[in-house]
Design brief:
single chain; 334 residues; alpha/beta; Rossmann fold; 2 domains; 5-stranded mixed beta sheet
Length: 334
């Protein structure tokens, strides 16, 4: 399957198993979503289970919070992660706090899906990576899959979770595995083999990372599209890098991170979002706190630029195998 198909199947499995699961957002019903992740669900489950919403992100999220408190399990789509900001107050002040401010009298089993990152020439308002804005908020869980199997399994886990989950979907991975060897856009990645996705309701637990490439010389922490870039950089440089796909940013699999860095003694962190106060800064702090006496070199970050998203220089903005490879070679020279 492609990631789009895997996400669609996760919706189908969840809706078939539990009539409390409802799906809505801008264009997700009749049209099936701008990326077609919900295609066919309205026809199969009816307009009361999958329906279109007005262009009002605050209203979509606020309505979903009320539904969740009432006992439903809404799975909503924000058409692009860039559009979520009008709803940020609802997410932070209501969804994230509901369990705690009610002393667990109410919970908020809500999933907020958002296509994230660049790669489709969408410009500044369709290409942002705002994950750090949500990992900072207590009460939220944040995930970002890198492959179809994880997309399905993590989405099913998110639907089953009693608390709000922010579900980021890397747009460059929607139609197939990304060819991380390229610093420039290529068409070939669209024809790569698709991901194997098991039938049924197999769940990928929240809070568990995955080792995508085993190695002994340096640990690379990545998530989403950057997993493929990290793998490509390791292959191109010949550095024996262990690539860890975090996939769950909050809760974070600290045990996997610490175990790997203590083994390799070096760490490179890669993410597409801007550098300052990005999620990589938190990862650096955790590695420093837990692995200081095992480190043989300073931790290095490879990230997007500290600038509004540059449409015309999109592929220069992305961390590519060249930049990641330079970081791998530098950390090995220390």
């Amino acid at each position: 399957m492609t990631m789009i198909e895997a996400i669609r199947e996760a919706h189908d499995v969840a809706m078939a198993a539990d009539e409390r699961v409802v799906v809505f957002g801008e264009d997700v019903g009749f049209f099936g979503g701008v990326f077609r992740c919900t295609a066919g669900l309205q026809e199969k489950y009816g307009k009361s289970r999958c329906f279109d919403a007005p262009i009002n992100e605050s209203g979509i999220v606020g309505t979903a919070i009320g539904m969740a408190a009432y006992g439903l399990k809404p799975v909503i789509e924000i058409q692009f992660a860039d559009y979520v900001y009008p709803a940020y107050d609802q997410i932070v002040s209501e969804a994230a706090r509901l369990r705690h401010r009610s002393n667990a009298d109410f919970t908020c089993p809500l999933v907020i899906r958002m296509p994230t990152g660049g790669g489709i020439f969408g410009g500044q308002t369709h290409s942002q990576s705002p994950e750090a804005l949500f990992t900072h908020v207590s009460g939220l869980k944040v995930v970002m899959p890198s492959n179809p199997r994880d997309a399905k399994g993590l989405l099913l886990a998110a639907v089953a979770d009693p608390d709000p989950v922010i579900f980021f979907e890397p747009k460059r991975l929607y139609n197939g595995p990304f060819d991380g060897h390229h610093d420039k856009p290529v068409e070939s990645w669209k024809s790569h083999p698709l991901g194997e996705v098991p039938d049924g309701d197999e769940i990928v637990p929240l809070g568990k990372a995955a080792i995508r490439r085993e190695g002994a010389e340096v640990t690379v922490l990545a998530y989403g599209t950057m997993v493929f870039v990290a793998e490509a950089a390791a292959e191109e440089t010949g550095v024996d890098a262990e690539v860890i796909d975090l996939r769950s940013l909050m809760p974070l699999d600290l045990e996997a991170i610490v175990g790997s860095v203590q083994k390799t003694g070096r760490c490179v962190i890669v993410h597409e979002a801007t550098r300052t106060c990005g999620f990589g800064a938190e990862l650096m702090a955790l590695v420093q706190e837990h692995c200081f006496y095992h480190l043989e070199a300073p931790v290095i970050r490879v990230t997007g630029w500290d600038t509004p998203y540059p449409h015309a220089q999109e592929w220069e903005y992305f961390p590519g195998p060249g930049r990641v490879g330079e970081a791998l070679k530098k950390v090995m020279e220390e």
